[in-house]
Amino acid sequence: MQSEHRRVSERWTLIAILVLAAILRLGWPGITEFKKDEAHIAQMALDLAGGRAFPLHGIETSVGLPKAPLSIWIYALPFRLSSNPLSGVLFTGALNVLAVALCWWLARRYWGARAAWIAALLYATSPWAVFYSRKIWEPNLMSPLVLVYAAAGLLGFLEGKRWAQAAHVLLLVLIVQLHYHAVLVAPLTPILLVLYRRRVHLPALLAGAGLGALTALPFLWHVLGQQSGVSPGLAAFLSRPAALDSASLKMWWMLVTGADIHSLAGDPTYLEFLRRVPGLSLPQALTGVLAIAAVAWGLWRGLRRRDDRAAGAAAVVAIWSILPILVMLRHSTELYPHYFTSLLPAPFLAVGWLLSKAPEATAGRGSAGRAARSAWRLAAPLVVAISLAQAAAFGVLLDVIGRQATPGGFGVPLRVLLETRRQARDWGDLVVVVSPGDDPRTAEWVAVYDVLLRGLPHRFVDGRHAALFPASPATVLVTPGAEAAVATYASAGLWRAGALIPARAGEEPFRLARWDGQSWPVWEEIPGPRALANGAELIGYGQEQLAQPGQSLAWWIVWRVWKVSANPGAAYQLYAHLLDAGGQRVAQVDSPTTPVNDWQAGDVVVQRFRFGLPARAVGPFAMRVGMYEYPSLRAQPVLDQAANPFADDLTIGPLR
After folding, report:
1. Per-residue confidence (pLDDT) for residue 619, from 0 to 100
2. Rounded to two decimals, what is the model's pTM?
3. Homologous superfamily in CATH for domain 524-652
């Protein structure tokens, strides 16, 4: 009867922990980041899910090296069900909830129910573990997969299960393909081979390695085919000077304790977060002390008794916990917290071992023994208090970063972006996305909306200097950071009937407007001939103020696509040279045109420039404008009525 009561209690404890883990990882999914990396992963996964492409590689690292496509293959699963990025977000969270369950199972198997709920609860509420469970990203898949890898290692080498040895080697290959920072825990495999060499089954290892090699073949094929592009980046990375410091130890402390989680709120918003969670450093410090004590005791006691199943498992978990510190003591690249997600939940497993087994090992007879047992009994409520404090703090953090601007911290929440998509879809037709940049490979908002507007006609324009008026009515969506375009569309009257979609307090809103195909900004016509050889036509210009020496001059040129370029791979620059009374150039601004492969007949583009007029410049002033191909610098001549080149550029003036 008593054992049945324990089983029921254990079951409900596990359910409560998993519910808490699910709330933290799956709750409020719109408060998640969806930036360039996430968008690129989603785009490639959508292509795979839709049968459009089979990726041989993933996205690039920050140093320009390609990653393996494993994360793309994994994320294709949720995107097979829905193209909404929330499907990938919830999928990531669900995998990490399963990881909490696996953490419980692993601790339960080797150390009992007490160790299981302690380890699982600490892992479920660990702030950085929660944060790295809430968005589409390769590092956010690392902890679940590494946990399976470590579990297979324990089953295979500690318990001698041959199938698990094969699975362990296969999983080693997979985690390295998931992200290069898996090398921080990869030494666990050779360590297990040495510690338990008498239980090694070579055919099982070879089988696992063979299966792993099969999964890596597509990426290896890509690397061999792109060797000329990969080798320079790899050589540059390997040639970087290395530093020997304590940065890895600081990152370890950060990931394990939840330290610096306030940094996600940005400066100065983090001050409000800290004001709402006073004393947060105490549970963080207690977590760190418990983890350090547990890892140290696991190494000392576990390695001495490694043939004992419980002690051996503790030794393996302790080694897993410290490997990232040791591997990255010497490093040639800046360290980031997400590099260390592979160490989780090892320290929490170690704490579970410590608090479940230490009372038996340290409590003696008499008053000292009773005192020790009483002290250890306080450990359980202490863990509960720490975990609830960490969970509550993360809930406050979600509230803060979901409502307020986070400069240098958390990105614009996905819920805001999905609202802009909803309204753009409701308005229908073509969507012109105006943002900083126009290339989805490099510009963040472009990459994001290329995914969000998938299946809906859309185009991009760099709103830092240009505004696009297509040949037919369209919806104009302007992101933060496109001030020049905002001014141009305002002069055309678009915002009178537009919509402002607020982001967070203190942030620039998103703007939506309907362009009817007839509302234009005011400009002065440029007399002909004015068509250029590349298919553009310079049709007008304007200025905001008088051209005065020593003052700044805001000026714009209006051009139209009269013919789609025969060379869509070309790139053109529009230039404007400010000339003084003697025809001498006193100021110059060059600006890229909209992407040539996106030109459509009838497009009208307004490009803005700002000049600083020298104080000694003498007017009246004129402007010389034209286009040239980049990077060849080949001029695009002005054509006469017979379509023959007759000048390299046009001179407009005198200016007011």
Report:
1. 78
2. 0.93
3. Immunoglobulins (2.60.40.10)
